[in-house]
Amino acid sequence: MRISAKSLIFALAAAILSATLSGCVQPCESAQACRLAAEKRSVDYAKPENWVMLPDCPAEERKPIDVFYVYPTVFASRKHAVMHWDSEEMRTKTRNIAGQQTGPFLPVGNVYAPFVRQGELHLVLAALAERPGTDAPMEIGFRDTVDAFRYYLKHWNGGRPFILVGHSQGAYDLLALLKREFKDPALRKKLIAAYLIGCPITDADLAGNPHLKMAEGPIDSGVIVTWNSEAREAAPSLFTGRPGTRCINPLNWRTDAVPAPAAANVGAVFFDGEGRITGEIPAFCGAEIRPETGALVVTPEFPGQYDSSLLGAGIYHMNDIYFFYRNLEINARDRAASYFNAGGQEK
């Protein structure tokens, strides 16, 4: 029996996607059908290829703290609603961003970063534009984050305390994880901090989830750390302005409007498209919280250079981590030290 080239291509696509996402090879009528079928199945997190980053040293040589990280939105397509990592290009792009954003945490912890099927960029932005926004485009990513975290806890955590880190959609994923999984006091006790940067967290989020607690200073533990940075005259933002939006200033670790000068900024760090550092600038910017919007108002050294054409003038969302890179590194170290000094108790 002759097999057409078209059928062979579809079968190959089905095998690749099934092996990547579920470890189970099943035929599909088309590559698109195979992708849709894969979205309905759970990801097999026992497979290392379904992780962006894993520790590269033996278990006995690992640090006493873990870092569980979820990356921001990396996928834009008018054809597909969710991200897949079935191409080397997408895997490389995700690993580069993950390597950059976890840099401040590498000195203190072992990084575990799963691939998750995040929502496509344009669909997510449209959802966030609704007030209140809908989580529907991100629901598969939420599910994958929970599955990956459960696998990590059961097979790799070994009782160590951990830090959660995410930016943008990755932070939304981790907020969903906190809401769904952290009602257990024993689990909360292991949380040093959750750095959910670039994710608006409001009083309504906290009222509906009383087990969540926001950071109030530089060394409290079991808390959520978040900010959304923008210029003083920024365009309306998807990430600030909602009633009761919370924020902490990463230069003085205050939650009020007291400004921090540029001299408090130990160093902003910037990267090229392949994860290489292109510049490090001490005293890059000052920052202050605008209480009425919950925004972190930033005064960068070169105003206008960091605007986002996609998000609007003066929206520094893409640089939420990079503007405060070295301060974030110091804070992760300080929170970890305080956690251990307090005997692993929430402060």
What secondary-structure arrangement, pairings included, does this model have?
Blueprint: H1 5-21, H2 31-40, E1 51-53, E2 66-70, H3 88-101, E3 110-114, H4 121-128, H5 139-155, E4 162-167, H6 169-181, H7 185-189, E5 191-197, H8 203-207, E6 223-225, E7 229-230, E8 268-271, E9 277-281, E10 285-290, E11 295-300, H9 325-341
Polypeptide structure, described:
This protein has 347 residues and is α/β, with parallel strands linked by helices. The chain folds into two domains: 1-41, no CATH class; 42-227 and 318-341, 3-Layer(aba) Sandwich (Rossmann fold), CATH 3.40.50. Helix content is 31%, strand content 15%. The protein is built from nine helices and eleven strands. The strands form three sheets. Strands 1-3-2-4-5-6 form a six-stranded mixed sheet, sandwiched between helices. A three-stranded mixed sheet has the order 7-11-10, with no helix packed on it. Helix 5 crosses helix 6 (169-181). The longest helix is centred in the N-terminal third of the chain and has 17 residues, at 5-21. The N and C termini lie far apart (70 Å). Mean pLDDT is 87; it is low at 1-28.
Descriptive tags:
alpha/beta; Rossmann fold; disordered N terminus; six-stranded mixed β-sheet; three-stranded mixed β-sheet; 347 residues
